[in-house]
Amino acid sequence: MVHEPSAETHPLDQHRDPSRVAVVQGVAAEVAAHHGGDLARMRRANGYSNATWVGDGIAVRIAHTPVDMAREVALARALPPAVGHPKILAEGTTEGHGWIVTAEVHGQNLHEAWPALTPAQQRQAVGQLWARAQTVHDASPSLQTHVASHGGYIPAALDDATAAARRAEAALGLSNAQRSRLHEVIEGYFRAAPEAEQVVNHGDLALMNALWDGEVVALLDFEFAVLGPVEIDLCRLVCEARVSDEGQRVDSEAGAAAVAIAAGAMDPIHGSALIHGAAILDQLRDLDIWLAIDNPQERVEDWRPCRLLTGLLDAEGGYLAPLLT
């Protein structure tokens, strides 16, 4: 198969190696054609870790890096129907890149739909998104064999998290007080996590991983599913509802709804330590991604993960403030 880089770079690919982008597009075109689709007619969907095209009755998702999607496929096939995950039509690996073909589900990416929704619709969407995630949590006994206790932004061990924290310290020039707080919160998470109930978390409970059609109709992309405290999903839900794309806190009905959901679902003893630690780990992972991109045109302090991380380290706890006081 010959791969020709596209003459027009998609915004989602602007920081990627053009030759690797061409490989992924070539694999996607081949897979789509085999299942009755034409990539030229399909639209590029939101998402960073994988490249997804939707149209012609199918959705084709290709891993940017050479990874096997077999575990995710097994989990997706075991999910309860109420999760709304699209039916998997095929999966495989081509040139080392895992891929999944699912049936196309009518709806708009929730992140793209979000600005046009009314405050009441946004509040409704947050509740419905959480309800679908809860369906996964409730099915943990039958799903947990398909997921690991680490992955996504949850490191395998405290040492891994500490190493990420040190990279952040160096990149952001954190003060001594911030460094001390950072390690305190991370260590608190790893102490508390084994004491909490372990559920299968989506692991990336973001607006972009749901579809909206007057209501939330599907929860997608379980590549980062992980077994751990429910606060892993809760911190993402609250962040999505209370923080803008630019990393600024937003007061809204949706944000208030997310805080209320989290307050009712957090572990009664360790909840604060767990949701704070999970949120910190989330931003450390994102910061590593931004450091790899290394965009010299933007000041580090303007990076979204920098803003969120330093906010989480302040006395109030950033966007989690209502849950930490």
TrEMBL record:
GO terms for molecular function: scyllo-inosamine 4-kinase activity. The keyword Ion transport does not apply. Keywords: Kinase, Transferase. Residues 45-255 form the Aminoglycoside phosphotransferase domain. The keyword Transferase applies. It is an enzyme of class 2 (transferase). Its EC number is 2.7.1.65. PANTHER family: AMINOGLYCOSIDE PHOSPHOTRANSFERASE DOMAIN-CONTAINING PROTEIN-RELATED (PTHR21310:SF40), AMINOGLYCOSIDE PHOSPHOTRANSFERASE-RELATED-RELATED (PTHR21310). This is Scyllo-inosamine 4-kinase. It comes from Phytomonospora endophytica.
